């Protein structure tokens, strides 16, 4: 940066001025943002992570985990990435008093408890809502659908319960939804085939979701979809189809899926396919040998039969990819056909 003598003079003068007359009028921090941040700090009972949030300093310059926009000087980011943070208790409602907030990203806060507050709907510019490895409880609220600018919602590793609101599919810009490792129940909403966002990832694993995969989900070409470790049943073949060209990772292990794999047409873009521990029948289709980028495959613990097709990546996986099926045979299994 290039500091002109005038600027240096101004800064020196400001510092001198500020040290005598507090609060300093020349600070960048917007007074409403400062007030909200201090209320949030107090609401959390003055945790150590916010020890730099000192009312006598400029929140745009010195406050760890809070960042201002360079032009507007409004708070746009609140973030704690490192583990062992000490946020405790529920999220204070004053979180809604940061109207320019773009990113709320709090990670590894085991003592952060309570529900997702309604006041969050006032954050109309919010794009990234990420509160992971914490202990948020209560439902995934329907009102999140009021935050029309959301790009990413992640609540992985929390204590959230109840059904997944179908309204989330109305978020026009959403590109990623991770609700994995909670205690969510009920079905995957029908509307989830209607997400508009391109290059979409959906992580719902490690919950208690039940019911069938809605047929409408087949309309969406998910880049990444992880539904593993739930109680989902029935046909999952709608997630595939050679017309899809975005689908890279499909992880459906440890559910109750029951469908005929022989009839599935796999997208050529597939890289990871994990179907282990289901009740899938039929045989492995020859089409899978044409999926050139397949790097991980696991169809173990199902009810598959017949010869493992020869070609592509299929003989490159070890026997555990295929073991514990009804009557699969051929390399890499020792059982010949
Ligand atoms: C969480 O709370 C418990 C009990 O009050 C405390 O022992 C622990 O240190 C807290 N964890 C963190 C990361 O602050
Ligand atoms: C949630 O709280 C429980 C009990 O205090 C703790 O064992 C667990 O690690 C916490 N979860 C996370 C993801 O931090
Ligand atoms: C998790 O949620 C249940 C209620 O669903 C509650 O009883 C429990 O205390 C919560 N655990 C933590 C660590 O907040
Ligand atoms: C996928 O297919 C669509 C049309 O079906 C096409 O517009 C798009 O460019 C394709 N994308 C890739 C990555 O091939
Ligand atoms: C496939 O899944 C089974 C069951 O979880 C596991 O034992 C095996 O190691 C896995 N194999 C591969 C290659 O991922």
Could you walk me through the main structural features you see in this protein, from its secondary elements to its overall organization?
This protein is mainly beta. Helix content is 9%, strand content 23%. The protein has a domain at 19-138: Ribonuclease Inhibitor (Leucine-rich repeat, LRR (right-handed beta-alpha superhelix), Alpha-Beta Horseshoe). It has 2 helices and 18 strands. A hairpin with a 6-residue loop joins strand 1 and strand 2. The protein is elongated. The structure holds 2-acetamido-2-deoxy-beta-D-glucopyranose (5 copies). One 2-acetamido-2-deoxy-beta-D-glucopyranose (NAG) binds at residues 110, 133, 135, 157. It is found in: Cell envelope. This is Leucine-rich repeat-containing N-terminal plant-type domain-containing protein. Residues 1-26 form the signal peptide. InterPro entries: Leu-rich_rpt, LRR_dom_sf, LRR_N_plant-typ, PGIP.
Bound molecules: 2-acetamido-2-deoxy-beta-D-glucopyranose
- Calculate the mean pLDDT score and round it: 93
Distance between the termini: 72 Å
Radius of gyration: 25 Å
The helix fraction, in percent, is under 10%
What is the strand tally?
A: 18
Overall form: elongated
Which fold does the CATH topology of one domain refer to? Answer: Leucine-rich repeat, LRR (right-handed beta-alpha superhelix)
Task: Please summarize the sheet with the most strands.
Answer: 16 strands, mixed
CATH class type of one domain: Alpha Beta
Helical run tally: 2
For CATH, the homologous superfamily of one domain is named as Ribonuclease Inhibitor
CATH 2nd-level architecture of one domain:
Alpha-Beta Horseshoe
User: Regions with pLDDT < 50 over 5+ consecutive residues?
Assistant: 1-13, 16-22
Q: What is the strand content?
A: 15-25%
- What structural class do the secondary elements suggest? mainly beta
- Strand and helix order: HHEEEEEEEEEEEEEEEEEE
Subcellular location: Cell envelope
InterPro entries: Leu-rich_rpt (IPR001611), LRR_dom_sf (IPR032675), LRR_N_plant-typ (IPR013210), PGIP (IPR051848)
Protein name: Leucine-rich repeat-containing N-terminal plant-type domain-containing protein
Keywords: Leucine-rich repeat, Repeat, Signal
């Amino acid at each position: 940066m290039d500091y002109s003598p005038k600027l240096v003079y101004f800064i020196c003068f400001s510092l001198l001025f500020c040290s005598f007359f507090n609060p300093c009028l020349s600070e960048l921090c917007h007074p409403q943002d400062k007030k909200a941040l201090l209320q949030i700090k107090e609401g959390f009972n003055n945790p150590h992570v916010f020890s730099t949030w000192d009312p006598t300093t400029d929140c745009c310059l010195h406050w760890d985990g809070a960042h201002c926009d360079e032009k507007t000087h409004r708070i746009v980011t609140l973030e704690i990435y490192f583990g062992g943070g000490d946020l405790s208790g529920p999220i204070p409602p004053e979180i809604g008093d940061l109207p320019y907030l773009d990113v709320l990203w709090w990670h590894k806060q085991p003592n952060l408890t309570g529900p997702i507050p309604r006041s969050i709907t006032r954050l109309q510019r919010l794009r990234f809502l990420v509160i992971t490895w914490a202990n948020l409880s209560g439902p995934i609220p329907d009102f999140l659908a009021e935050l029309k600018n959301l790009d990413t919602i992640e609540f992985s590793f929390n204590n959230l319960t109840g059904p997944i609101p179908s309204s989330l599919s109305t978020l026009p810009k959403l590109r990623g939804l991770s609700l994995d490792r909670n205690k969510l129940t009920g079905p995957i909403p029908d509307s989830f085939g209607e997400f508009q966002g391109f290059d979409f990832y959906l992580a719902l694993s490690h919950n208690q979701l039940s019911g069938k995969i809605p047929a409408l989900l087949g309309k969406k070409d998910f880049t990444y979809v992880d539904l593993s470790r739930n109680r989902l049943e029935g046909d999952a073949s709608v997630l595939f189809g050679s017309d899809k060209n975005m689908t890279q990772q499909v992880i459906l292990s440890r559910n109750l899926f029951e469908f005929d794999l022989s009839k599935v047409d796999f997208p050529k873009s597939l890289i990871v396919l994990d179907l282990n521990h289901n009740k899938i029948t039929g045989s492995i289709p020859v089409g899978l040998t044409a999926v050139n980028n397949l790097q991980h495959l696991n169809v173990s613990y199902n009810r598959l039969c017949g010869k493992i097709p020869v070609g592509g990546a299929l003989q490159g996986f070890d026997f555990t990819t295929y073991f514990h099926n009804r009557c699969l045979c051929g390399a890499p299994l020792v059982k010949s056909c």
